[in-house]
């Protein structure tokens, strides 16, 4: 993983089952991702990427991928799933 403060990430493969809970095309946050993945295996599915300034997917900086390994599949991500809290409760 290469450290990178990705404020906006773009879902490149809408409809993938691992992304079903995310209904929007983009994920925005103080740090939507904490880096991007390098050394991605050939044939990997790029599910989410850093978003370019023009709103396009930056496929050279994937943040969420799926690839085959042995008899199974691996999902690797450079983002975290967190719940942001404030005084009013969960947002």
The low-confidence runs, each spanning 5 or more residues with pLDDT under 50, are 82-91
Question: How many structural domains are formed by the residues?
Answer: 1
| Secondary structure: helix percent | under 10%
- Summarize model confidence as the mean pLDDT: 76
Main sheet: strand order? 2-1-3-4-5
The total count of helices amounts to 0
Would you tell me the structural class of the helices and strands?
mainly beta
> Span from first to last CA?
29 Å
What is the approximate shape?
globular
Defining key terms:
two-stranded antiparallel ribbon; 5-stranded antiparallel β-sheet; globular; mainly beta; 91 residues; disordered C terminus
What does this structure look like?
The chain has one domain (2-83). Strand 4 and strand 5 (72-77) form a beta hairpin. The strands form two sheets. The protein has a five-stranded antiparallel beta sheet with strand order 2-1-3-4-5, with no helix packed on it. Strands 6-7 form a two-stranded antiparallel sheet. It has strands spanning 2-11, 26-36, 45-51, 57-69, 72-77, 85-86, 89-90. It has 91 residues and is mainly beta. The protein starts with a strand and ends with a strand. It contains no helices and seven strands.
